[in-house]
Amino acid sequence: MTKENPKIKSVLKSLFQVSVDKLVREDSSLAIHNLYIQFDSEAGEVQIYDERERLLHKKVIFDWIGADLKDRNFISKALSVFKYVIEMLASEGAFNHSLFVRPFSVRLADEEFKILVDVYTIGEDESAYDDDLLMKYLDKDLDDFLKKLLSDVE
Questions:
Q1: What are the DSSP calls for 78-133, one per residue?
Q2: Could you say which of 69, 105, 123, 152 is the most buried, measured as most Cβ atoms within 10 Å of its Cβ?
Q3: Whether the Cβ atoms of residue 113 and residue 146 lie closer than 8 Å to each other
Q4: Given strand 100-109, what is the order of strands in its sheet?
Q5: Which residues lie below 8 Å from residue 8, measured CB to CB, with a gap of 6+?
Q6: Is-above-0.85 flag for pTM?
Q7: What is the pLDDT of residues 54-74, one digit of tens each?
């Protein structure tokens, strides 16, 4: 994990959360396989797009204004921060909505939407759900079902 400024992580988390919330609120019938990240180094702006190349939300990362995109150290740090933030959101269930169809990826793309790198992917056979949390809810559902089923026997 990178030692990047915690405020950057917070701003990026907010950026992704607002984008995901917008998709869920507005396009609940759409199937999303990909979200795209674009970065404008001159302005320090990070933009999130959906599959239809529609801008969902954008934020300026002031520490990244004028970043040199040829600097491998900067690119590595930025990708690490993106991955950390997206994994944090995934662990909090941000991508558990039926709108996000597996395989699902978050990709860094250039201005023509050419994929530069996959930042985060959930495969078809993988789940974004927390297995312990899922089992807890299944146990509760099973208990409720059995109570209803056996209520006639008592």
A1: HHHHHHHHHHHHHHTTTT-STTEEEEEEEEEE-TT--EEEEEEEE-TT---S-HHH
A2: 105
A3: no
A4: 55-60, 45-49, 32-40, 100-109, 115-122
A5: 61, 63, 64, 81
A6: no
A7: 999 999 999 999 998 888 889
Q: CA 138 to CA 26: how far, in whole Å? A: 29
Place of tokens 């900067």: 74
- Rounded Cα distance between 110 and 121, Å, is 18
The pLDDT tens digits for 136-154 are 445 565 666 666 666 666 5
Instruction: Specify the pLDDT at position 35.
Output: 97
Q: Token pair for residue 140? A: 């509760």
Instruction: Give residue for tokens 């985060």.
Output: 120
Please name the residue that has the structure tokens 């040829």: 70
- Nearest-angstrom CA–CA distance, 72 and 80: 12
Whether omega before 6 lies within 30 degrees of 0, making that bond cis, reads no
